[in-house]
DNA sequence: TGGCGTCATTTTATCGACAAAACTGCCATT
DNA sequence: AATGGCAGTTTTGTCGATAAAATGACGCCA
């Protein structure tokens, strides 16, 4: 769970705060599965791992608690929050209806430049994809492009709160994505799935777009199920 | 055997950690408007006010950031996040559709004991209300009973995440509620508004319940508007 | 008057230290 | 063999001190 750091550090913008840096690194490490679910987060260990003192660490972990990535027990420290099939199903349901709403409103409100952003984001994502590679920074970059695409879809929904909700749910979902191994992922044709959504969006066919999106999100469910049922 | 420790834990919520206590106090102070929007939160001031060191304070404030109650600027400290009409409208919209969903699902799934909880919560709320009083602890108690009632309505939606979302939105909304003075509040017949919702719920009339709920939430909009338009 | 650099003061972010709590391994007792 | 203390070790939560950054005051000069 260590050395893919430079890329993320470089991207962390303006962060003269030691704490912001460690926050983003821990967050990404949890999302990418480098810090596995349920793992104890001992302050001394993290100090060595992330090269900082206890105060920035504790602040960073505190930020991650309301986001649902970290749990805390009184006098028993921090740990990475768990992943369960029940939680995933809840998440999937939340995502389907909140993004559906956001997508419908974007389709109503979005103009040509919105369409352009989507097409562009899809292009970059599809470029990144064939080059599949389980190596950490590649995976991080792919995740970034994937998120950029999905956020572009709903960018014109007109509600900052709804955008933030979708963003948070997306990141929580990526914890589950990182659980499926790469072979399984390669079975799906991700680019085609996304193209299908875009095609419906460009036709301004909200119903088709929403159902393609739901279908897209639902596919991970079938990959996750065998992993989380013991 | 009930030992003393459990009793204390049960009585003081989140008990032994100094930080949990200060977290809840600051949170409530922001929601109730005792810490007004935009106000600078200097650590030294807070140390005196809440009687603790810098570390618990910074952790508590960090928890409040993702919840949207506190903003942070690099090397410029913390401040209470702002309230605007735009933000309120976004919030109102989010609340209407997320609680509508939660309420519909509760009406589908909830049983007799769910109905009982609602009736009970309404009873306690209506008891607390006529005794109106702008005094702080009364206001806090009324807020608590009001929230208990609304959470009881959606308690059977079956989605922990949706419940948490509604809970967070409710608390953010209460910041706006605390802006309207008590005279204005007294003009409304709060108990009647809530009874109307309950009546529709007990008839299992989801459409009527949802629209009564939306109507209820919308009423604050008219009270807020003159306050936030300068 | 009004903009600008400089210096002193305040405020922030971080570190190291310490008391209290939790965990661990061991031994005696049943 | 299992249970229940008991001491030693780790780990947590909090405090005070300190360097870096921001803020504010003041005088200088156009």
UniProtKB/TrEMBL annotation, chains A, B:
InterPro entries, per the entry: GntR_C, TF_FadR/GntR_C, Tscrpt_reg_HTH_GntR, WH-like_DNA-bd_sf, WH_DNA-bd_sf
Pfam families linked to this entry: FCD, GntR
Record-given protein name: FCD domain-containing protein
Keyword Transcription regulation among UniProt keywords: yes
Molecular function as annotated in GO: DNA binding; DNA-binding transcription factor activity
Keywords: DNA-binding, Transcription, Transcription regulation
Domain HTH gntR-type: 16-83
Lineage summary: Bacteria, Pseudomonadati, Pseudomonadota, Alphaproteobacteria, Rhodobacterales
